[in-house]
Amino acid sequence: xxxxxxxxxxxxxxxxxxxxxxxxxxxxxxxxxxxxxxxxxxxxxxxxxxxxxxxxxxxxxxxxxxxxxxxxxxxxxxxxxxxxxxxxxxxxxxxxxxxxxxxxxxxxxxxxxxxxxxxxxxxxxxxxxxxxxxxxxxxxxxxxxxxxxxxxxxxxxxxxxxxxxxxxxxxxxxxxxxxxxxxxxxxxxxxxxxxxxxxxxxxxxxxxxxxxxxxxxxxxxxxxxxxxxxxxxxxxxxxxxxxxxxxxxxxxxxxxxxxxxxxxxxxxxxxxxxxxxxxxxxxxxxxxxxxxxxxxxxxxxxxxxxxxxxxxxxxxxxxxxxxxxxxxxxxxxxxxxxxxxx
Length: 342
Known about the structure:
Blueprint: H1 9-23, H2 27-41, H3 45-58, H4 63-75, H5 79-92, H6 97-109, H7 113-131, H8 141-164, H9 168-180, H10 188-201, H11 205-218, H12 223-235, H13 239-252, H14 257-261, H15 269-291, H16 295-308, H17 315-324, H18 328-335
């Protein structure tokens, strides 16, 4: 027999709906809120905003509508307006998880790390309170997944903050928790990529390769994933497979004329990042060809890489290569005038 505290999704939805109507000034207000919620879920943010404004004109203190309007603004990039609404909704009801989520992401977006952490930790405590409940196993499956999603979201937010601060091990711990729990709110590949990137930074290449390979199975044309996966293979000693992945990435990456002719100093930040990504398979292939004893091919790939971008995420590998072949440096400088070597 299920425990006495079993949650029923249909029952909870019905209770929330009835409470919503009672909290609104009129039946129309409750109906408009539900229509606004549906419009928000359908990404029709202007429609949702109009309906929520109508709801709030009838009942200015309807906390659910204030919070949902905050999310509508947030999705439209109106971050400061959204923050004010979440703060107001939190003052009325500090227990609303939807509002707490909003405050967490507002804090993260505005680089207010301490405020974001405080709210993401509330999401973790909310989840843990249910995980420790002796009736947890009797919860409806849908309710368990929603609670785990909230816990995963809090862990994900804390992981991103730790990553921003360069606390790689702390970030890994948070992101692993986010990754291992169901999450209906944040795409699985988004969490997986962040976790793999942290493992990459920590030099845990074999673990990162497993996640990158899985993500590539769903995103086979993503050159960023291909480059990272290839580098993990290279660092793990699987040079032949790494070469094939780098070749695939190189084939997918076209080299715009801007990278062939413009000096590095005239490029925008976006162009620099694009150039770094496009150049990465060339650097990788140069290192692999050295391993194979194909010095001319390695030199050609390296010359092309420097022409596109002088940056590589492991520059010491290139420095060692140039130290072993100092005669290459003059040719590389002629190939890329105005650019420094890695």
